[in-house]
Specification:
11% strand, 15 helices, 7-stranded mixed beta sheet, alpha/beta
Length: 437
């Protein structure tokens, strides 16, 4: 009798534990399956969670199953050797979030694992640096030869020849700022989809950029020229997030904002002959409080009104300031100035599976071509100035004109002078594309 009671107690205890495991499994299935999470940055968190889950939870369930149902594991080794899938993997694979996390290798992984062309990128970066070093050395030699064109003189004395030499040297340095000194890519290389994507684009998990969309030849074949000197407005600069500031912003330095940067870009483009409107409206301020939840909606209303009043506008630029880890300094040396790096940002209006029907963008290909042409010009004339073009899922109001771009100028840890300096090469690159140079 005592033995039967012990056996019954043991059986009840095992069944209770098994029920607990089943309940835990169902809870995790609902919790992890739930709603699709590919919107915005939740996808990266979900991907990280599911990646860790696929490593640990199946092992725990298999161990529990082997313990409580030893007969069910017979032949497991043979099935694995024959390449058959373990039943737990099949069941686990039915969870939507598990599949999503398994399909996407997200940004927490190393660059070597994500990007098979990472080694090529490092080699190219080294080659570019060697090219720049050689270019600097050659310009230095040229200056030295020019300065000595009149022959050696006593220290502190200058002849007319030396004065002319110094003037020529200054001219050489000034001209060198707009001379190509970076990488120029042949069309055959750019036609390679894998090369183009690994070198020039970064794709957020919320979207996709397939071969049917990303066509370098089509991008470069777009005629984006715009003649300067018009009496009517041609370029609109605005800021969806007008309250973004730089590290040295203060009551004593109130212009250290993305709006201040936009003022300088407008000034530079006007000097080049373009007719520019700079919209300084605060679309991210509602009721006197910072509110970015509907900033793009308010911005669309604002710029649509401006475009209706000024149909001659062909270029629309939304200037932002990025946010990065504090120890990540987005700076480059451009024309002897410490300059904030910029990033062209594009909304693809599509999820990883399909186009977002309620956010159509008939100008998507032109948007991509506009940023890609500017990116290549920056690589050629100002190497290191730009980051990779960033592609994300939503539309970000880039549908309003074919020549539309959202531009991130530095980050929160850049100072205003660095961001302001960035407008000089940006104006040059923009002008090159609009002039078809």
């Amino acid at each position: 009798m005592r033995a039967m009671e012990i056996k019954k107690y043991t059986g009840n205890r095992r069944r209770k534990r098994l029920r607990q495991m089943v309940i835990l499994f169902l809870f995790l299935t609902v919790f992890l399956g739930g709603k699709r999470l590919w919107e915005e940055d939740l996808t990266e968190q979900a991907g990280y969670l599911t990646e860790r889950s696929r490593e640990t939870l199946p092992v725990l369930f298999q161990a529990a199953f082997r313990h409580y149902c030893p007969a069910g594991t017979s032949g497991e080794k043979e099935r694995e050797e024959n390449g058959e899938t373990w039943w737990m993997e099949k069941l686990w694979g039915r969870i939507p979030l598990y599949r999503q996390g398994g399909e996407k290798r997200l940004s927490y992984q190393t660059a070597e694992a994500v990007d098979p062309a990472y080694r090529m990128y490092l080699e190219k970066k080294q080659a570019d640096q060697e090219y720049r070093d050689a270019s600097i050395e050659s310009r230095g030699t040229l200056l030295e030869n020019v300065m000595q064109a009149d022959g050696s003189q006593a220290e502190g004395q200058k002849t007319d020849g030396q004065a002319a030499g110094e003037e020529t040297a200054a001219k050489v340095l000034a001209e060198s700022s707009t001379q190509a000194r970076g990488a120029v890519y042949p069309i055959e290389q750019l036609a390679d989809y894998d090369f183009m994507m690994s070198h020039f684009f970064s794709v957020h998990p919320s979207t996709t950029a397939g071969r049917d969309i990303m066509d370098a030849a089509a991008f470069l074949g777009k005629d984006l020229r715009l003649a300067a000197g018009s009496d009517e407005p041609q370029i609109l600069i605005y800021h969806t997030h007008s309250q973004e500031t730089y590290a040295d912003h203060s009551p004593e330095n109130p212009e250290a904002t993305v709006v201040g940067v936009g003022n300088y870009l407008a000034e530079l483009l006007q000097e080049k002959g373009y007719n520019v409107i700079h919209d300084t409206s605060a679309y991210d301020i509602q009721g006197g409080q910072l509110d970015r939840s509907k900033a793009y909606t308010y911005a669309l209303e604002g710029i649509t009104s401006i475009l209706q009043e000024n149909p001659s506008i062909q270029v629309v630029l939304d200037l932002h300031r990025d946010g990065v880890d504090e120890d990540n300094r987005l700076v480059a040396q451009v024309n002897g100035k410490t300059t904030a790096r910029i990033m062209f940002f594009l909304g693809m209006s599509r999820t990883p599976e399909e186009a977002i029907e309620y956010l159509p963008n008939p100008n998507l290909e032109d948007n991509l071509a506009f940023s890609f042409q500017m990116q290549l010009k920056a690589e050629e004339y100002f190497p290191g100035f730009t980051r990779k073009i960033y592609l994300k899922g939503l539309r970000y109001n880039l549908h309003v004109r074919p020549r539309s771009s959202l531009i991130e100028v530095g980050a929160q840890n850049n100072i205003y002078e660095e961001a302001r300096n960035a407008m000089e090469p940006l104006a040059e690159v923009l002008d090159m594309v609009l002039q078809g140079k």
